[in-house]
Amino acid sequence: MAHEKSADMEINNLPENSLNLNQLKKYAQDLTEVYKSEKEKRKELKAVNQQLMNYADALNKTILELKAANNELKEAYLDTIHRLVLAAEFKDEDTGEHIMRMSRYSALIAEKLGLTDKEVQNILYAAPMHDVGKIGIPESILLKPGKLNNEEFETMKNHTTIGAKILVNSKAEILQLAQQIAAAHHEKWNGRGYPKGLSGEKIPLAGRIVALADTFDALTTRRPYKDPYPVEVACDILKKERGEHFDPDIVDVFLENIDEILTVKAEVDTKEIVSLSDFTWSKRDRGGEKNEDSK
Fold first, then answer.
1. CA-closest candidate to residue 179, choices 154, 204, 216, 209
2. Up-side HSE of residue 95: CA atoms within 13 Å toward CB?
């Protein structure tokens, strides 16, 4: 009886053992397939990652090339602007230094007024074009050493509208700003300027900034009609014209930062600074035309 029971148990266990073995084989096969599949996926993933890295390298290279091309285009653009300005004022030997000084003065004022970095940079590049309209003014008027008569002064005033017409309808942001400046840099805070007689904040801010920067540079440097004025005299004139010719806030900001203004002047100016002891008023200023046209 014991022998029969043992045989029955062995028979009963065989299917179960066989089933377990088959299952293990099946699991082993499945694991092998999974491993092979994952291995292939890793290879594919590695290939994709390498491809992405190649794309990234190519993209970085393209971006660097575009930046270089953009910088070259920007330099060519600014160089063209600079040459346009020089063409308009080529008769003045000091033009190169003048546009460097007054544009940097303008940018410094804009910065101290709290304008954005982009706005400051745009003013720096646009300010030199303020007098581009002088290309249409006769040399006899531009270089006249004495006071302009009424007819000559009316002709001189046209440089604002000529400049605005030269620069109008440009798609370039800097040239659009330059057009505003060319048209507005002889307007006065009290409304007695030209060409439109705008007053106060109706005058574009960039025009108000450049008006002061240009006047200060004209006062402190040699012109065909005058010797350079000492900085002290120029600052006194700005104070007197605060709220008349110039925006009061801009005058205040300028004078509060006069040390930085003079640092810019020293960096650019190759001429000797005039002292008060050597100063005399020009014939034009003695004739009552103080600050009327900085040319």
1. 204
2. 20
Cβ atoms 189, 245 nearer than 8 A = yes
Can you list the pairs that 276-282 forms with residues at least 24 positions away whose Cβ atoms lie under 8 Å? 276/230, 276/232, 276/233, 278/230, 279/229, 279/230, 279/233, 280/227, 282/225, 282/226, 282/227
11 has a pLDDT exceeding 50: no
Residue range 231-243: average pLDDT? 96
Mean pLDDT score, 78-85: 68
- DSSP code of 185? T
Mean pLDDT calculated for residue range 70-91: 66
Q: What are the beta bridge partners of residue 116?
A: none
Q: Kind and range of the H or E element at 107?
A: helix 95-112
Q: How far is CA 164 from CA 27, 85, 154, 277, 287, in A?
A: 85, 13, 16, 41, 30
**Would the pTM of this model clear 0.85, i.e. be above it?**
no
The total of other beta-carbon atoms located within 10 Å of residue 238's CB is 22
DSSP string, 133-174: GGGGS-HHHHT--S---HHHHHHHHHHHHHHHHHHTT-SSHH
Whether the per-residue pLDDT at 290 is higher than 60: the answer is no
Q: Percentage of residues in the chain with pLDDT exceeding 70?
A: 75
